[in-house]
Amino acid sequence: xxxxxxxxxxxxxxxxxxxxxxxxxxxxxxxxxxxxxxxxxxxxxxxxxxxxxxxxxxxxxxxxxxxxxxxxxxxxxxxxxxxxxxxxxxxxxxxxxxxxxxxxxxxxxxxxxxxxxxxxxxxxxxxxxxxxxxxxxxxxxxxxxxxxxxxxxxxxxxxxxxxxxxxxxxxxxxxxxxxxxxxxxxxxxxxxxxxxxxxxxxxxxxxxxxxxxxxxxxxxxxxxxxxxxxxxxxxxxxxxxxxxxxxxxxxxxxxxxxxxxxxxxxxxxxxxxxxxxxxxxxxxxxxxxxxxxxxxxxxxxxxxxxxxxxxxxxxxxxxxxxxxxxxxxxxxxxxxxxxxxxxxxxxxxxxxxxxxxxxxxxxxxxxxxxxxxxxxxxxxxxxxxxxxxxxxxxxxxxxxxxxxxxxxxxxxxxxxxxxxxxxxxxxxxxxxxxxxxxxxxxxxxxxxxxxxxxxxxxxxxxxxxxxxxxxxxxxxxxxxxxxxxxxxxxxxxxxxxx
Amino acid sequence: xxxxxxxxxxxxxxxxxxxxxxxxxxxxxxxxxxxxxxxxxxxxxxxxxxxxxxxxxxxxxxxxxxxxxxxxxxxxxxxxxxxxxxxxxxxxxxxxxxxxxxxxxxxxxxxxxxxxxxxxxxxxxxxxxxxxxxxxxxxxxxxxxxxxxxxxxxxxxxxxxxxxxxxxxxxxxxxxxxxxxxxxxxxxxxxxxxxxxxxxxxxxxxxxxxxxxxxxxxxxxxxxxxxxxxxxxxx
Lengths: 498, 235
Hints:
- The structure holds two protein chains of two kinds.
- By secondary structure, chain A is an alpha+beta fold.
- Helices cover 56% and strands 15% of the residues of chain A.
- In chain A, the strands form three sheets. Chain A has a five-stranded mixed beta sheet, with helices on one face. Chain A has a four-stranded antiparallel beta sheet with strand order 1-2-4-3.
- By secondary structure, chain B is α/β, with parallel strands linked by helices.
- Helices cover 40% and strands 21% of the residues of chain B.
- Chain B is globular and about 55 Å long.
- At the A-B interface, helix 7 and helix 8 of A face helix 1 and helix 5 of B.
C-alpha cells in the first residue's frame, strides 16, 4: 500500500536556495582574487611609476604587500602567490635600479626583494588557511541552520499529523527543487524520480517509503546531501511514530467497538428475551384448551402481553437511538421548545405505564423555554422518568418529582426519586452504554432499558449542547439533573416573560 | 384437583406471573419467589414437590441457589435460563438440577417437563430392580436381561453400567461428565467421545431404530436422558 503523505511544488522564479548560494560563492571569490592580484599590481605600478625616484624601495615593497594581502584574503593561496610573484617581478623591473631591467645593482636591494617575496608567500598561506576555515565554518553553520529549521518544523507537526506539506515546502525552498513528494510505501520497489533525487526513508531497519525531489538544479553538494540525509532520517522517525500511533488508535477503536458489540449481544440475549418469554408463556397458556382459565386470568395474561410488547418496543427504540448516536450521523435540529409541555406529556405517559405512581412536574415560568431538538428532548425525559419510575416503584415510595429552573443562561431539570439510589461503585460508568456489563459476565446484567437509557440521554444532550449528571436525593434516592441552553422567549412560541 | 406443589423463582415479575398462572390453572399449588434468598426460604417453608428456578437472579444467583438447595433437599429442580451458553446449563445440571428450559418457552413444553419431573419423584431414593418395556423390547435391569421378541440380546459389562446409570433416573437429563464419572470413574470427565461410542453401541442393541432413539435421547452438547418410565417398580 502506497500513499502520498505530502506533496508540494515550489514557486516559480524563486531566489537561489540558501545552501546552493553558499557553495557557488567560492569559485567567484577565487576569480576575484586573481583579478585583484593582476589589476592591483598594474594599478599600483602605474600609480607609483612617476614617483619611483622619490620613494625608498622598502616603502614601494609595502605597497605591493597590500595587494598580496588583498588578493590572498579574497582568492586564497593561489591568487596570493600570483600577486606575490607579480609584485616580485614588477618591483624588481620598475623600481629597483637599474630601472626597466631584471638586474639588480645593489646587494641591499636583493635582500629587500627576497624578504618581500618570502613575506608575501607566508602571508598568503596564513590568510588562505584562515579564510578556508572561515568558509568551512560558514557552510557548517548554514547546514546546521537548515537542519535545525527542518527539525523544528518536524517537531511542530504533532502526533498523527496527516500530511507533511509544511515541512516539505521548506525542503523545497531550501534545496531549490520544483516539487517534493513523500511517498509512504512499506513494501515494493523504490520510487523513481524523473529528474532529481530519491531518498529512501527507513527507521529501525524497516523501509517506510521515499522522499522524491524533482526539479532543474545542479546535483546536490556534499553539504546539501548531508543535510538531506539527516533530515530524512528524522522524517522517517516521525513517519514511523505517526504510523504506530495511528495503529494504536485503530486498535483502541476496535476494542471499544468489540466491547460494545459483545455487551449488546449479551444485553439482547437477556433483555429482549425476558419480555418475549413472558409473552410466549402467556399466549401459549391461553391457547391451551385443557387449562381452565378464569376471566381474571384471561385479562391478566392479555395485559401482561400488552405491557411486555410495550417494553420490547421501547428497548428496540433505545437500541436504534444508541446505534444512531454511536454512528455519529445524528444531528440535532435545535429550536425553541416548551419544556413544560414536554415534561407534562412524559409525566402523563409514565403514570399511565406505572399505575399508582405520582409524577409531578414543576416548571418555573422563566425556565419553560429551552433551545433543544424536540424529539431528542422527549427521549431524554422519557428515559429519565422511566428510570425514576422503576426505582420509585421498587422502593415503595411511588412518587417522582420533576423540577425545572433557570440558572444563568441555561435551564436545569431535576428528576428526583426516593428509591434506593445508585451504588457508589456504579457511578463512574453510569452513562457508558451497558455500564454493568464489563467483568460481570457471570453475575446479573443491567436491563437493556437501564443499560442504554442513560447513555442515550447523555448522547442526545451532548448533541444539544447540554449536560447530565447524578446527585443524591436528600433522605435517599437518586436525582438526575440535566441542563440545556434556555431559549429567547420569542422562540418558544408564546411563553411569557417574567 | 391437586397435582403438586411448585415453587416458581424468577426476578422478572411478568414471567413469574405467567408461569404461576399457567401452573395454577392446571391444578398445581404455586408459590413464588423473586430472588435467591426468598427461594431458599420458600423451599424450607413451602416444602415444594418441584422448584422452577431462573438462573439469572439478583445477588444470590441461580447456580448458588441450586447448590444450597441440593445440599439438604432432593426436590427436583427445573432450571429456566435465557442464556444459551451450554456451560451455564451444564453447571446447573452438575450442581444437581434435573432439567432445564431455555426462555422463551411454550407452556406445553413447561408442563411436559413438570409432569416428567413430578412423576419421577415417586421412584426417587429407591434404586431397586427395574423393568422397562418398549415395543418388542423387554428390559430387566436388576437381572441384567434384555430380550427382543423373546430372544436374548447380550450387553457388555460397561453397557450394563451405562443402562443402570441412565435408567435409575428416568426423565432426568444426565450430563456427559456425570455419566462418565458414574460409569468409568473420576478422571474420565470431558472424554465425551468414549461416551458417545458406547451410547451408539448400546442404541444399536436396544433401540428399534438407532438413528431415531426412543429410549436414550441425546441433548446436544449437554448429555443424555433415559425417557422410558419403568413398567414395574417392585417395592
